[in-house]
Amino acid sequence: MGSGWPSVSWTFRSPMDAARLRQIEDCMWEIPQRGSMRVPGYIFADRELLRHMDDKVHEQLSNVAALPGIVKAALAMPDAHWGYGFPIGGVAAFDPEKGGIISVGGVGYDISCGVRAISLGLERRELLPRLSQLMDELFREIPAGVGSTGRLKLSMKELDEVLQGGAEWAVERGYGEKSDLAFIEEHGRLEGADPSKVSTKAKQRQLKQIGTLGSGNHYLEIQYVEEIFDPIAAGAFGLEQDHVLISIHCGSRALGHQIGTDYIQLLSKAAQKYRIPIRERELVCAPIDSPEGQDYYKAMACGVNCALANRQVLTHLVRNVLRRVIPEAKCQLIYDVSHNTCKKEKHQVNGRPRLLYVHRKGATRAFGPSHEELPSRYRAVGQPLFIGGTMGTCSFVLAGTNSSEDLAWGSACHGAGRTMSRRAALKKWKGKKVISSLKAQGIIVKAASARGAAEEAPDAYKDVIRVVEVTHRAGLARKVALVRPMAVIKG
Fold it and tell me: Which residues contact 352 (CB under 8 A, 6 or more apart)?
């Protein structure tokens, strides 16, 4: 999985040199505070992941650690790799009372890209005879690919309602069930959104894209539970051995991308205005409490709500197909959580509760047991989070931990993390070959383009098993279940 940033050409720098880091725990390394760094940097990894981690992560994490108002440390998850400004897999919290900033680079262009998982209440053997038909129907129903548009055509006024209402808007208009909202991050709607802070161009690009999957690393995947590590948490999440899930991974589509494009220019001017030293262009930012900083937050919140509405409408489309093909399927939403956001959250800082702006780019919120934000069904075990691997390997369901609060502001990894750029993947693999190879493994792939399949070749990613094992050992989240792909729709 990637960050949702534009597809560009880039190459990895030299692998990270562990000799420049100080190991402070089994899976935790420190970049010591030096120069203009206000806090240290921490990388969660084992030696093998460090060896494959590009050196740019070290540089970018050090740059983030130099930003005003950062609290405690700049953090990199086990799947971290080079990004724009922040490393992908980067987490940082900023205190508005200490001159803290808000940054486009700390969120990414695909605002609120995330994963929702749906339980079908079926065993694998029950689904297999109808899998091919189900995939044909889903591929017809779910628009996927670059610039894909859906059947839902909105007016500008209606889109403004989406940007304010999120998944709540979708449910109110019959796209889903009211009970879904309890199992969506922010209960389906992030407060503080102001559509007037989103450009007309961004809105125009989104008018036909609600209910679409998009391209890049986005997917709809049918999976089965191969192994359960934590039976109690699995029971709370409704997971059973050999039972089937559908995972949907997508974000705010063109609107989120345009918000990022617009505000990276506006915050560049703001950084100069407020004399914020910027060590990398994509780290442009503004003080949280400045007009520019608040404008970006309000626009970013619109992007979050757009993504939540998008995944809700996609769920409705999936349910429609299931009613036709497998009417006995239950289609119960397990959870929906994002991994490209900036959120206002209360955290303990030196024993005192503080309101912080937590940036997570390519990192998943992972609140532990008893957290007030969680639905009652999950408060004894922690928040579900879904870690995508590749369409040829496996993915994981994890549960948030209380230790993650102290370690990383309640955050964990979001996927396998790339080891190869999209351009390099295109040079090495052909899409048709990737699809036929997966078919030989019993995995059906429906791709909107051969190019997209080649870019997402399984070997272009890190070993998700190792990434999740480190996440588990570090205490960022704990393993609940391993799931294997049966069929995938790719943009």
Answer: none
